[in-house]
Amino acid sequence: MAQWLIKNGHLIDPANGLDDVMDIRIANGKVAAVGKSLGAEMGDDVIDASGLVVSPGFIDIHCHLREPGQEAKEDLLTGTASAAAGGFTTILTMANTRPVIDQAIIVAGMKYKIQTDALVRVEITGAVTKGLEGKELSEIGDMAQAGARAFSDDGYYVNDGRLMRAALEYASMFNLPVISHSEDCCLVADGVMHEGCVSAKLGLKGRPAEAENIAVSREIMLAEMTGGHVHIAHVSSKGAVDLIREAKAKGIKVTAEVTPHHLCLVDKTIESFDSAFKVNPPLRTNEHIVALIEGLKDGTLDAIATDHAPHAYEEKDCEFNEAPCGFAGFETAFSVLHSCLVKTEQWNLQALIQKMTAGPAAAFDWKDRGHLSVGGLADLVLIDPKKEWIVDPHAMLTRGKSCPFTGMEMVGQVVRTMVDGKWVYQDGKIIRN
Ligand code: DOR
Questions:
Q1: Is position 184 annotated in a ligand binding site?
Q2: Which residues sit opposite 419 in a β-bridge?
Q3: pTM here?
Q4: Which among 192, 252, 295, 410 is placed 20 to 30 Å from 23, CA to CA?
């Protein structure tokens, strides 16, 4: 197995408190040494990482790989290629596939396919309810035993509080989180964007922020009641941030994530009627963005998650009201946040990396991920923080070619990704081992 000595990179490893120009040696798929001026050992391939940032591989606790069943949108190979290009070495895929991942046999099938097709580590979410129908609890225990790492009906809110209670109780027996897509179904009804001045002006039906706040309140109360771990997916409203902050202060087991698009885009973009901006929960306003950034800074929000949700181009290429929600997110996530928040001095690179590595690992108690400890997994990423590029979805590896950041100028890009001591991505190209 190849050995690597990566020299002179700016190593940022928040879990280990490292932020300095250092070398890192990789051997046998593990981190063999981290330090200043490490000498090459026999068989080492030396890489000069001067000017580059070396980070633990990113962890995305929310994505959609569309396999099984919707391979025209994405599959395990294209999805994980896209993840590798974005610097993600572990990703958690959601259950809203066809069939829905709601039985142990489907989890087992996925695990088998992941072994042959995936370029990065893929963890599996099982559905909370059978068929995501919100009527009957799925086989939570069996799926946990088959290897599911979380449970979620993402895409839908579990409207029946009794079922959500049972899911939290059941999942807590396996120390696993239940991920909530928190939007009250009745309040959002058939809304297609954030409810506010822009929706009124455009004559489009709105999804009020209160729908999210109300849904989050129930989840927090159920987590307190059951002692289970609820994780709030794609937080997008100021009210939700306030509620989660308060719940954490009370010691309730709640964690939360926020996406790059909710941090960097507003509802006003929809004045173009471009369906690339259609997503659930919807893009909101600056007031919400300010609260989300505050939530990241004070620890209310634990992680950045992409909600990578690719759709085939022709599905998105239609009238705004008819288009499906979501878009690809792996390949733009780091660059968008680096360009919009770090380069503008609203945030710093160390904190951004923390929320893409140690933060998600801690939220889901994935102790072996999100750090570059000696003896630990050699999952890492090299980033060129000065690289300028323009987002062009057709140059991306995902099948989801609809992207709300199309044409935007970026500063900073992932240039190499290593999983298990092997390079899987370098300068726009996938490396199959
Ligand atoms: O916009 C979204 N798309 N939000 C979700 O929660 C689900 C996702 C999808 O699966 O397309």
A1: no
A2: 422
A3: 0.98
A4: 410
